[in-house]
């Protein structure tokens, strides 16, 4: 019965390799010559073939080198070839910083995978902002895919620091384009833009690449002051119509300005149930502009309309509420939160919407928050007037049943209200809007066809603006449009 002898195979292999290396140095049993520019190095075929796919392929076929027993390696650093030969005989290698690329080149050429990967790992561990550009160039030149990936990830995480290095100005356009467009780049858009301008200004011929790279930057996140600097001071920017257009669009997008071919001047919007359209009146020249269609559920059932920011809101008697981007020609109505209380009339103050119950002598007020799409109870109004709107003015029915002729002017800044009596103006359910210091009184039960009248608080005078012939509107369906 045979039993295995306990032998350290690793030590044995190292001993054999060391013996081969001694034979090489003594030129003993050597059967092949590797020539460099200055030297002829005797080696053993079996050792170099076992270590290198390059030599294995050469010596296992009937090649000139195999027949003659000599190979001349050109266009390679002599010392790096010597180190590769030593590696094949010892499994060890060392390299100076300035020779890393040369040694990697020869190891790559001779298919010495362990040495090749070892140098790549060494470069990876030594990677910093100072070595980045050289390492990235080496990795790309010699197809070190892992090292390329490591360099790219490093660049994404340290973009701002790398952009300050002198070598940053020399990187290839396709690599900068990759960095600016990569999802992993978490740097601010301002920092990306500044780095791009440094790169562009290094070589005037690069200006042709500016627009394509600027499209990777979200300019709404870049301070307006820096965008102004780009327009005023960067020649590559102000000489490009495309770049200027990109910056202009970023400003308009930041202000939420939507493209539209509509021409609406400041005016008063009413709902016309004859045409089922919204119409805007320019109070200066009396011209009407047709706007979007009414929602199908709004026929004869709207209790209040108003404008806040980019939206026109409509409150319907079935407690459903809608809004539309009224500045956009083809905008559609969208539903918002349902109000819990009975139907009411509304006004926009600051960032919220306030609604009073449109009920017999009710003074309940609720607030709608557009940002949260929710309703909350606020308070009760000071003056009880039936069927009234908490707006610039209130018009309704007095407790004795007669139409009210009072105009309540509410000033949000001071939170004060002033009651004004209007001679020869007794009307229920009219609405009011303020434009350039003038209060416009719209509609009302006793005005058929509906009219628009103007009250000047300074002169305390009231005059008719227009009679809305041919327009059928409910008492509560008008809104001041700030275009």
Keywords:
3 domains; single chain; 4-stranded antiparallel β-sheet; alpha+beta; 483 residues; 16 helices; 21 strands; Neuraminidase; Serine Threonine Protein Phosphatase 5, Tetratricopeptide repeat; Potassium Channel Kv1.1, Chain A; 23% strand
What does this structure look like?
The protein has 16 helices and 21 strands. β1 (32-35) and β2 form a beta hairpin. It starts with 8 loop residues before the first helix and ends with a strand. The protein folds into 3 domains: 1-126, Potassium Channel Kv1.1, Chain A (2-Layer Sandwich), CATH 3.30.710.10; 157-257, Serine Threonine Protein Phosphatase 5, Tetratricopeptide repeat (Alpha Horseshoe), CATH 1.25.40; 267-481, Kelch-type beta propeller (Neuraminidase, 6 Propeller), CATH 2.120.10.80. By secondary structure, it is an alpha+beta fold. The chain has a 4-stranded antiparallel sheet with strand order 6-5-4-21, with no helix packed on it. A 4-stranded antiparallel sheet has the order 7-8-9-10, with no helix packed on it.
User: How far is it from the N-terminal to the C-terminal residue, by CA?
Assistant: 103 Å
Strand order of the largest sheet: 6-5-4-21
Residue share in β-strands: 15-25%
* Low-pLDDT sequence parts: 382-397
Which descriptor suits the 3D outline? elongated
Mean pLDDT: 81
> Any idea what the CATH architecture of the largest domain is?
6 Propeller
Radius of gyration: 41 Å
Class of the largest domain in CATH? Mainly Beta
- CATH fold-level label of the largest domain: Neuraminidase
Number of helices: 16
């Amino acid at each position: 019965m045979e039993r295995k002898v306990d032998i350290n195979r690793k030590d044995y292999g190292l001993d054999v390799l060391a013996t081969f290396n001694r034979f090489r140095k003594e030129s003993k049993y050597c059967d092949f010559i590797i020539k460099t520019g200055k030297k002829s190095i005797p080696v053993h075929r079996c050792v170099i073939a076992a270590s290198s796919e390059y030599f294995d392929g050469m010596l296992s076929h009937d090649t000139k080198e195999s027949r003659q027993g000599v190979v001349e390696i050109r266009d390679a650093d002599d010392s790096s070839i010597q180190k590769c030969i030593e590696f094949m005989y010892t499994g060890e290698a060392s390299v100076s910083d300035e020779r890393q690329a040369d040694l990697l080149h020869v190891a790559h050429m001779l298919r010495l995978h362990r040495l090749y990967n070892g140098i790549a790992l060494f470069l990876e561990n030594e990677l910093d902002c100072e070595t980045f550009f050289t390492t990235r160039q080496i990795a790309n030149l010699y197809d070190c895919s892992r090292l390329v990936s490591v360099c790219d990830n490093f660049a994404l995480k340290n973009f701002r620091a790398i952009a300050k290095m002198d070598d940053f100005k020399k990187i290839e356009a396709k690599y900068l384009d990759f960095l600016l467009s990569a999802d992993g780049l978490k740097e601010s858009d301002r920092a990306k833009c500044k780095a791009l301008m440094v790169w562009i200004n290094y070589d005037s011929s690069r200006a042709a690449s500016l627009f394509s790279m600027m499209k990777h930057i979200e300019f709404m996140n870049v301070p307006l002051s820096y965008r102004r600097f780009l327009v005023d001071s960067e020649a590559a920017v102000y000489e490009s119509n495309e770049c200027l257009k990109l910056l202009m669009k970023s400003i308009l997008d930041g202000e939420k300005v939507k493209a539209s071919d509509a021409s609406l001047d400041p005016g008063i919007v009413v709902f016309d149930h004859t045409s089922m359209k919204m119409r805007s009146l320019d109070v200066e020249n009396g011209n009407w502009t047709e706007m979007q269609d009414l929602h199908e559920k709004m026929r004869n059932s709207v209790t209040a309309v108003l404008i806040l920011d980019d939206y026109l809101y409509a409150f319907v008697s079935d407690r459903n509420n809608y809004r539309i981007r009224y500045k956009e020609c083809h905008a559609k109505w969208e539903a918002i939160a349902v109000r819990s209380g009975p139907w009411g009339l509304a006004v926009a103050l600051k960032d919220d919407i306030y609604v009073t119950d449109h009920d017999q002598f009710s003074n309940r007020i609720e607030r709608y928050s557009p940002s949260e799409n929710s309703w909350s109870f606020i308070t009760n109004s000071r003056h009880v007037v039936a069927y009234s709107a908490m707006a610039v003015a209130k018009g309704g029915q007095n407790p004795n049943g007669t139409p009210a002729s009072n105009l309540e002017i509410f000033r949000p800044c001071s939170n004060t209200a002033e009651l004004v009596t209007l001679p020869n103006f007794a009307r229920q359910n009219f609405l009011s809007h303020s434009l350039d210091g003038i209060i416009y009184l719209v509609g009302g039960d006793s005005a058929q066809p509906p009219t628009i009248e103007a009250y000047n608080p300074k002169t305390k005078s009231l005059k008719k603006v227009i009679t809305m012939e041919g327009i059928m509107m409910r008492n509560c369906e008008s809104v001041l449009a700030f275009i």
